[in-house]
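seq:
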Amino acid sequence: MLDDNNQFSDTKFKGYEFLNSDMTDTKFNGVNLTNSSYWAVLKNAQFNDCDLESCVFNDVNLSGSTYENINLSNAKFHNINMSSVSLSSLDLSNTEINDAKLDGMKINGVLVTDLFDSYEKKS
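struct:
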């Protein structure tokens, strides 16, 4: 948990650049991060009530991170570690996933690899 000395509240960082930063265990609450770009370690980060519209995540470790009430419309993800991430109540309309490692991934409790196997057997 962050103590009061580590909190930025009502702070404007518009146009700032953070270089070579490790933001492990960082919490983003009610933050507008529209059009931001990330090349970082955000392992176990928490994003709550944040706007991440049109953000670019490239070579980012997001393992173990949590997301609640997040806008990721038009966001781009490339070379991302999202192992052990939990996603729920999603709108994945018009979403495209390519070259993904799906071992152990479940949608509504069903292994995605089983869904693909079933689909291939019907074809």
